[in-house]
């Protein structure tokens, strides 16, 4: 494939040394991957220049947690059959990529739907982001109250956990998702949730993370209670979502273990707005919409060195990474830190070998074009002028 080069008003490169715009340079692309920046005047004549000089460019957004198998339609109805969920997942995938999401890590789905979704996108039958499938999320034995379309798999003990991870990897999973604790009943106080939940032990979680590591995969955990969060940190899971029971006492351990935090702030907003129409119980709506990490604790986590990542986990067509960005900014994160959470931090939490989220040689040319400099305001994410996947405009 011939080389091409993108000319933009600026490439917002959130490097370790600060923000670099590469003004007067082009981003060279070959075979769907980035080669590097070159001065406009030094490009060979055979390189095709794609003129986006009216736009700013950032790496494509990363959703570190999507519920591909349980999408709720825009009128609030939740699917009850596999065929309905497939149709809604197709619509959602097209919506997500139009909204700038170029990489999305699945939270798992019934009957390997996320694997099929990835194949359909890769074969060009559906327009959507690059999907990292998880297949069946793992839950503690006895967790029988999950919605069918979550596609969960119950495991009991470290030996069964080991077998489950091996089988999922063999079937095509690129990440392992666990629900570290699941409700026996909804409790209004997150500090009191431990005795109301089934929880994976440290031994079970450690076996899951060890098997995933051997296969080159990360483990993401949804954890509610303080006990489940502590177990996840001890076991070395790569990222934790929701984390309603998070406290300052957990932060040092998260930094030491390299455990990222997905606050799922947009989840509370969408559940509060649409949960009743989707059939969620009053207890579930109350817990998810109100029991979320406080802004002050989120800022303390960031200050302590915990990586913050964007994960929607909303299951709603209306929920997207942009909304999570707005919620993180509202909580106190700077614009540049929010963009890092939505690009490079999320990408680093997908797989051990990062291939997106940065302007780096050999990384996927997954790019987002916006009309205004996003550093000057996140509202620019609502003014998307183009999305590129592997060097091809969508």
Q: What is the topology?
A:
Elements: E1 4-11, E2 13-15, E3 18-20, E4 25-30, E5 33-39, E6 48-59, E7 61-66, H1 82-98, E8 101-106, H2 113-122, E9 130-132, E10 138-140, E11 153-155, H3 157-171, E12 176-179, E13 181-183, E14 197-199, H4 202-214, E15 219-223, H5 226-235, E16 239-242, H6 248-257, E17 260-262, H7 265-274, H8 282-290, H9 295-304, H10 321-331, H11 335-348, E18 367-370, E19 384-389, E20 392-393
Parallel strand pairs: 1-6, 7-8, 8-9, 10-11, 12-15, 15-16, 16-17
Antiparallel strand pairs: 1-4, 2-3, 4-5, 6-18, 13-14, 18-19, 19-20
Gist?
With about 400 residues, this protein is of the alpha/beta class. Helix content is about 35%, strand content about 25%. It folds into two domains: about 5-60 and about 355-394, Urease, subunit C, domain 1 (Roll); about 60-350, Alpha-Beta Barrel (TIM Barrel).
